[in-house]
Amino acid sequence: MKHSLTTFFFFIFFTSIAQTNSTQNKVTTTPARPKLVVGLMIDHMRWDYLYRYQNRYSPNGFNRLLQQGFNCQNTIIPYTPTATSCGHASVYTGSVPAINGIASNNWWDMKEQKYVYCCDDKTVVGVGSNTKKGKMSPKNMVTNTITDELRLATNFKSKVIGISMKDRGAIFPAGHAANAAYWYDEEKGIFISSTYYMNELPQWVNDFNAKKWADKYYAEGWQTLYPLATYTMSQKDDNAYERTKEMPNDKPVFPYNFSASIGTDYKKFWNMPQANTYTFEMAKAAIAAEKMGKNNTTDFLTISISPTDYIAHNFGPNAIETEDTYLRLDKDIAAFLTYLDNTIGKGEYLFFLTADHGGPHTAGFLQEHKLPGGSFELKQIVKDLNESIAQNFGVKKAIAYQTYYNISLNYTSIDSANADAEKIKQYIIQTLENTTGIYKAVDKSKLSTANIPTVIKERLINGNFPNRSGDIQVIPLPQWMRDTPKGTDHSVWNAYDAHIPLVWYGWGIKKGSTHRETYITDIAATLAALLTIQMPNGCIGHVITEVIK
Ligand SMILES: [Zn+2]
Fold first, then answer.
1. Most buried residue, 68, 377, 415, 473, by CB count within 10 Å?
2. For residue range 41-57, what is the model confidence (pLDDT) as tens digits?
3. Domain ranges, ordered by start, for the chain
4. 123 is known as an active-site residue
5. Distance from Cα 83 to the centre of ligand 1, integer Å
């Protein structure tokens, strides 16, 4: 009896040692990771939208993230242009355009002397559509992403899918080694992909597209969620400084009746807040059909909400249209978080919300309230400059391209006229600096010695990729915009464009907030730390240690 009791205790002792060892082995060989990571980017979301409409947000949307998650209150974009492609690439590469190569939404290739769109890839074709919208891939992004690093770390067992109506909002976040990226083809009114990722759309995407979402929401139209008089954070509904590009009404007033577009025009859908809901529906369909978060490895879903940018460009931050869009978006976020709770499990997913850039006030609104700012006609200035350069220097179309305050010279034309490029540059700079609303114009080849504040200089250098960033940088005065007498723009260094929301929630995340200055480039570094994987190969960000439990 005594003997067998001793044996029994020995058995218990060794079994528990064996169990301890196996638990330890498990911990050291397999870092703890969430089932699913969801990165949510809201295109053109100013930081202050977290608070501007807060008392009307539900407890389950933005407020759930703010109250139960970690809020990096002072997250800055440390480069210009603060544009969509750059923002999406920066969040996921943890880097800046000068390193990851995504220097703008479109650029003039100075070596090849030709126009390039950031996602252009002539070697691929559309899947689900044969329009030009399908010829897209991440090939112009020269570094990898945190989503690529997750694929590498798990020997490609993790599933990575990118979803956004904008191609660049889906493609750059999902990275080079993604399983799929899906974006909206406005000619067809459906989500498509390209042969970079697959040869045919999965059945679930065809089923999703067959539901004709745009037509359904066109039939619904856009009325405000609540009575107009209750929109107390906005100006009156009808304003001369709001524009109605691709909207069904001539005047910027509710209600908007989209019924004439049913079955005919899928371009207007970009401007409906219901297109945000549509994007979340696509995300839910992907999670369900691809069994994301149900595999044995961590999956990563990147979502970017694009209609917020279109609506912002038309109406600006002080319009009922914008207020209503964010109240509706809050409901979409609440519903999506509940969906994740139910399918993945509360505390089992890691979630973050951020933006690619913010946006300024409209010029007319500022003038009405005696605040500084305005719009200058950069397109016309460039046109006039090309004419005067032709007369004075004998060069035809010396300025090849202008985008986001970057001016690219046509060297083929300058060289064939045997003209002095330096003199032409100086002539352009002087003309620009004599324009109301322009603070400085800078020769990009002499950025490091330019007589401008260090903070602006650093952001320009961070945004300057060889052969993709033009020859002359225009720096507007604060709140001055190019060619935007109505509506808004973005892309400059100022806080309204460069200060973005960043809120973390869920698996591995502490409750709290910080006012310490953090950067868009820190997001990928922090994700790498949370997931115990390598940082992306061009990452310059630092881990936001306060966030981690
Ligand atoms: Zn925009």
1. 473
2. 999 999 999 999 999 99
3. 38-367+494-547, 374-477
4. no
5. 7
